Amino acid sequence: MQIDWAAYDPGTGFDEMIASDGSARKAAAELVRTLGAMSSRELRARQRAAESAIVEMGISFTVYSEGQNIDRAWPFDIVPRALPRDEWVRTEAGLAQRLRALNLFIDDMYHDQRMIAEGRFPRDLLETSKNFLRPCMGANPAHGVWANICGSDLVRDKDGTIYVLEDNLRVPSGVSYMLENRSITKYVFPELFDRQNILPVDDYPAELFNMLVSLSPRPGDDPEVVVLTPGIYNSAYFEHSYLARRMGAELVEGGDLLVGDDDCVYMRAVEGLTRVDVIYSRINATFLDPEVFEKESLLGVPGLIRAWRAGNVAIANAPGTGVADDKVVYLYVPDMIRFYLGEEPILQNVPTYQCSDPDSLAYVIDHLQELVVKPANESGGYGMLVGPQSTRRERIEFRELVLQQPRNYVAQPVITLSTVPTVINRKLEARHVDLRPFILQGADSYVTPGGLTRVALRRNSLVVNSSQGGGSKDTWVVG
Fold first, then answer.
1. What are the tens digits of pLDDT across the range 411-421?
2. Which of 239, 327, 403, 411 is a plausible cystine mate for 371, CB 3.0–4.6 Å?
3. How many Å separate Cα 2 from the centre of its chain?
4. Which domain, by its residues, includes 376?
5. Is residue 377 part of a domain?
6. What is the CATH number of the domain that holds 363?
7. Cα–Cα distance between 464 and 444 in angstroms, integer?
8. Which stretches within 58-168 are classed as H helix?
9. What is the pLDDT of residue 185?
10. Rounded CA separation 406/375 (Å)
11. For the range 258-262, what are the long-range contacts, defined as Cβ-Cβ under 8 Å and sequence gap of 24 or more?
């Protein structure tokens, strides 16, 4: 029995593949034709082939449950999300614009604080920020760039408008899964790559390496680049080792590095000490140096911040970057673009209520059932309230949390995330998705063509995080 697109229900929102009149969207036309020629049995067979490949390739992620670390196979759906090239050009420009402004904001906060002095950003939000690190004041990372790697989460509302939901600047993850998703999709649907122009993503490791090299304090030499990981028990360890391998860089832990009397960083090796020029850090900044931040940290390197401030080593992302990775600060990004760049934002924020504002707080408390309420510094979908799907008891508990710490919460209207057909048993059913493109900024900028599409595998769910039952898809930008 062949797949019947007439039986596919895209729902009342925006479906990325099927328009409201039942026709295929332009970027997805070849994909719709190919799937329509398949039987439900063949569709399921290809899904199983992808799942087997994931197990054989060892693509996994770690879930923390009841004090244990559980490795699970990466959840993947074979039906890709297709985006048109002309739309992506605008999105790409908006993402690069946004990261430029965010980096200027971070640099400003650790230097002159002009945006505060001119009344465009509240001083108390900076002073109460958990991620504003005073030991970073006056530091000058290469090219004035603090956030070298950013993963911005995009959502599309029911009217087709793309919004930026949040910016992930501290240790953004997921790019290895974007790359592996493409490899598996080529294995499952080789014919589709032969018949159309799908922009490649395979050059990301090279782009990342070139960006990191551009930060080196010894640009005339062959820089030594390392990836600093917390270790094998970290949930993103697969990605750390994957990127190190693809870049040809050493994967190190804190104990593998030391800071010499010359304030340079060295890597211990069998042949002796090797000077390190660039550290791609996958460790939260406050664990990087026990001399400056967390005194009990065993993950970092004593003296590392001293070496970084002396300009003898580059760290990406730079310590202190998290000051802009705050859902309260997110509210001000459009104004940052106007203030620092003198431009209008290409991409818009989701409308956001700042609970530290008394009027906004009163509105949020009265409308908890209608809103998504998020803590300022959590990630992974944890600690949030999805009002329409919450119980009365959950809303009462959340009300108390917000009233106790209004600075720590923001609220947003529920966005009806766009959908993509997804293999559920042997059928295609609409499931909600978001998108995380990755943006690099060093001497130059680079934006991945597409990114990591995350999908809520449960019917009607808006939670796409893999740790909470979500999955992923390949993302095509079709020329």
1. 999 998 999 99
2. 411
3. 37
4. 352-413
5. yes
6. 3.30.1490.270
7. 31
8. 85-109, 114-117, 123-127
9. 96
10. 9
11. 258/301, 258/302, 258/303, 259/301, 259/302, 259/303, 259/304, 259/306, 259/307, 262/312
